[in-house]
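FORM 7B - TANDEM STRUCTURE REPORT

SECTION 1: FIRST PROTEIN
SEQUENCE AND TOKENS:
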Amino acid sequence: MASKADLARFIRVPMTLAAADPKWISPLISERAAALTPKTNPFFEHAEVQLWLAVRGGRDVGRISAQIDALAPVDPNRPAGHFGMIAGEDDPEVFAALLATAEAWLKARGCAVALGPFNLSVNEEVGLLVDGFDTPPMVMMGHDPAYAGRRVEACGYTKAKDVYAYLCQMSDDIPPAILRRVRRGPAPGVTLRMLDMSRYDEEVVAMTEVLNDAWSGNWGFTPTTEAETDQLGKALRAVIDPRLIWFAEFDGEVAGFVVLLPNVNEAIADLDGRLAPFGWAKLLWRLKVARVKSIRIPLMGVKRKFANSHRGQLLPFQLMDASATQARALGYQTYELSWILEDNAPMNRICQSLGGRIYKTYRIYEKALA
């Protein structure tokens, strides 16, 4: 982007296009600006990023990004680059122009495959919504028009991977047989505890260590840097509730964690992306006093060296039980588990055992660059 004004236009494109969609929730403009600015997003420290606007008759009709992440896994035979942030009018020419521009940029930098959308990283918003248009997105989740997937596919893109969002009722519980084991209490040497806000920075470092270890076998895994996790931690500090973030320790070592994040989208739905002049007051009142009724679980992990042990296999359910007990007491009614890779059998089984149903599907596309 050439200027702050151009960046503001880029951020506004999907908001303008979705004005008639009752399920659309505008993200906070200030948060989006920070995410797309190199000075405030550590992702730019290890990635090259380019943003484009599609303009017709003086009107912004689409946008797209392309990025190459130096930390992403590389297949030397088919090096991939990423596209993302895609939005456009329901016009095949707009999508064709956007994707062709991103493809040319990636190909000029040695990429043989275009993969996406990633907004901007595999550790941020991923995939294009292809099912589940009838409900609004939860915090840090995307929402796309039904035509977008068809337009992308018409440009030669095919499915690389689907990721799911499960919706669960807080009134449901883990299976009785597992619940009985959980309620017996932790095994010897296992400690469950809430997030310690007095050691917040240390807790963020511990979370990053577990996350990078637990997710290292996942498709497309890209390690999260401490700077990225620290930036996210700072951004969320005002809205998180330490009672909803739990750690497990094995013999004093952090072995796993779960994060339940209040669905901020419920609180900002009528703010049109703006916090001024009274947006912050409304947001905090709704989160801290009125309380939203839904919650999202964006992060959960157990270190690989513990995951297959007797203690480790029970750990996800112990973490879920501890955090869900707090969430129920605080009045939350529903929660989302996302994103879950379609072929991540263990996580899909856990989601299903919690009574979850797949209510949104996001698709990651790929295309060979000739």
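SECTION 2: SECOND PROTEIN
SEQUENCE AND TOKENS:
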Amino acid sequence: MNDVSAMLADTAERLFATHAEGIESAARAGTWADAAWAAIEESGLPLALVPEEHGGFGIPASEALALIRLIGRHALALPLAETMIGNVVLASAGLPLAEGPVGLAEHAEARVPWGRFAKTIVVGSETGVQRHGASPVAAESTNVAGHPRDQISVLPGQTGSRAELSLLELGALARAMQMAGALERVLELTIEHVSSRVQFGRPLAKFQAIQQELAKLAGEVAAASAAADHAADTYATGGDLTFAVAVARTRIGEAASKATAIGHQLHGAIGFTREHALHRFTTALWAWRDEFGTQRYWTLALGKRALTAGRDGYWLMVVAA
């Protein structure tokens, strides 16, 4: 990790650790965390994925994506990942970078994460990326985590060239990275809980049945981490991102379903309470799992790729991934 990457990572960790819980409270109340966002913008994090020639920091793509993973580790309730993705897509399409938080829309009718607070709306299309200013909210709603997901009446804006980077795939990649980070925290929180919670005179972690469930949880998290790493490396090296994202989202989505079930089972009822951190991560995982392509969408995409490879190409497709 170079000096700039290390500085951004240290800054991000400090900012997220300081502000995450307050940001979450603001999001659930339907308000905007002005001070936290101002600190994030001042740090330069929204430009971390943008190449240096377009006004970014020029850090390696894999290290910029690691920052998005860190967003997931803190379940940060702000559209920082969306803003990072929006800026790199705008740069790719030859459009001006965003001012303020970005809302991403796969198409003009999509629900936009954090739409009511977005100063710039980036819409993907077949002909070219569209950049819009803040747009009226047609209908406010929230996802299962209680975070804004709004229907926007998109105002006329600028249309750039067809971007080299797909908004859908980059959004899906961002969600994969966030989910991998959140799953790591689910594992850590669960280990902490069963190690400190005492039943029948000994910690829960000493019981064989608990150890078996922890091993399953750790296995799912490790698989999700490997899938996210592969997708990030593919993006960084210019490989087949469509396939890598389909693999990552399929495997990480499966891991999220299994890991959240185990995490809540081992925590018991306390994991669902507002006082405990676990629900922040599990509800975020359930929400992210079906954004920028649902779990079904990416599983079908992976299945179609396998069928296209045919009998002779299937094994080569598996080992090449």
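SECTION 3: OBSERVATIONS ON SECOND PROTEIN
The beta strands are 102-105, 111-113, 120-123, 130-133, 137-139, 149-152, 158-159, 198-199, 202-203.
The mean pLDDT is 92.

SECTION 4: SIGNATURE
Preparer initials: ____
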